[in-house]
Amino acid sequence: MRKPTLINAVAVAMAGVAAAFPGMDQTLAEIEKRQGPLSTSLIGDLAELADKDLGATGRAIKNILTGRESGQRERAESVGKDKCCIWKYIADEMHAAMAGSAERCNDFARQAVRMGFHDAGTWSKSTGKKSGADGSILLVRECDERRENKGLLEICAQMRIWFDKHKEFGIGMADLIQFGATVGTVSCPLGPRIRSFIGRKDSKEPSPKGLLPGPSASADTLISMFEDKTISPAGLAALTGAHTTSQQRNMQPDPAGDPQDSTPGVWDTLYCRETTSKDAPKRVLKLQSDMNLANDTHTRGTWRSFSSAFIGQIKWNQAYSREHVRLSLLGVYNINELTECTKALPNFMGSFDSPVKKQLQDFLRGGRDSIATDALLHRDKLPGPSGLVGISRDDMLTNFFPLRMGIIEKAGGSKGQTWASFLVARAHDRDLFMVMFHDSRATPH
Ligand code: HEM
């Protein structure tokens, strides 16, 4: 049974929380002040339409962008036979692929969140009605050809598989990508159920280059880059919090997989604390850009306001959801015609209890040969006596085989036996392989 955490107990509206704890109102108000303002500027067609011309969804999105409605819906609802029906099928399929068996979300989920940013984030005030959340990252091979998308190859291959499978139902690529980001987020324990909208227009026009940030960018560069996308410094700090779940692989490829906090695959605020701490474990790799934001005068207050495990988490989930709705609609000029399909998302996961806690600690202190490493690098599935994982060709050759050979040899097997224990079962496409393996370890220890 799931162990309830504090956040589970209070994953409710802030009003309820404030009522439950004496003095909380004041604490929340102080945190609010420290957090700094999120943007209220309108985007897309909402900036041009009068209130009287807005439909229900357009009005709801306007309210989210201006802070009058929440950007998340904690509670699941049922899905009927409407436009969202197909998205329920897609959400279930994505969720099954994105949730690991070690109570974390896996690399598909993390890459899907990042991919949502890399498609939408190519919009800026100067690109006007072009670019943004339009699917071009996949439709014109930006994913395959642009350096900043190198860490997204597996999710790009998988998104194409999902698109081909469901396109007969009229889904669009831009929607699939942004929906993947919200399913990815809620597939991570503590990740919010971000309000999700369907109906964007796809584009096969390449987006302009140079509108996505680099890992050593200064706070000033990042702040002006995001302000040009209508995102305030507070919004930038909130969105960058997505690195709580991250495990970089390309910024420092050797060794790949080092996380950005001690709980990769979990949507918690430990990342905020560890980014500014001198005592983070050895293998927690902090991005220079994150440290710059954590220490800059414009973003430091927001960063700190999210840092606590309890109220910080609630504030951050709220702020992240609101800013993500904005991000996911950059460059969209038919917002008033969209349909809300939040109800198709999986349930919020308010607790986690990793079955490989001890191994994860060993990994974070520097060891890599562990069951936790194995899980972290390969879809976060814990290997039993035999298993099936889907991995990329590069990952298979550089990480998976050598790592498992080491483990099996340690357990007394020979190299010959080790190779024989792998069977490449099926190649989905040129990048993605399904590998069956067998080894001598029975269950996680
Ligand atoms: C502030 C500017 C940002 C910079 C400089 C930045 C940079 C990076 C870098 C270098 C990585 C590691 C990639 C790798 O080595 O494979 C990464 C990972 C990631 N980023 Fe960002 N990022 C930024 C903002 C964001 C935002 C706004 C989001 C989402 C809303 C996001 C979501 C992610 C996620 C989920 C990962 C993990 C990917 C994985 O584990 O495979 N990032 N980012």
Report the sheet with the most strands, covering strand number, pairing sense and barrel closure: 3 strands, antiparallel
* Secondary structure tally, helices: 20
Structural class: mainly alpha
Please give the order of strands in the largest beta sheet.
3-5-4
Average pLDDT rating:
85
For the terminal residues, how far apart are their CA atoms? 19 Å
Low-confidence stretches: 1-21, 417-434, 438-445
General shape: globular
Number of strands: 5
Radius of gyration: 21 Å
Helix amount = 40-55%
Beta-strand level of the residues, as a percent range?
Answer: 5-15%
List the secondary-structure elements in sequence, H or E.
Answer: HHHHHHHHHHEHHHHHHEHHEHHEE
Which small-molecule species are bound to the chains here?
protoporphyrin IX containing FE
Pfam families: peroxidase
Binding site for Ca(2+) 1: 119, 132, 134, 136
EC number: 1.11.1.-
Protein name: Peroxidase
Characteristic terms for this protein:
445 residues, mainly alpha, three-stranded antiparallel β-sheet, two-stranded antiparallel sheet, 5 strands, 43% helix, 5% strand, disordered C terminus, binds protoporphyrin IX containing FE
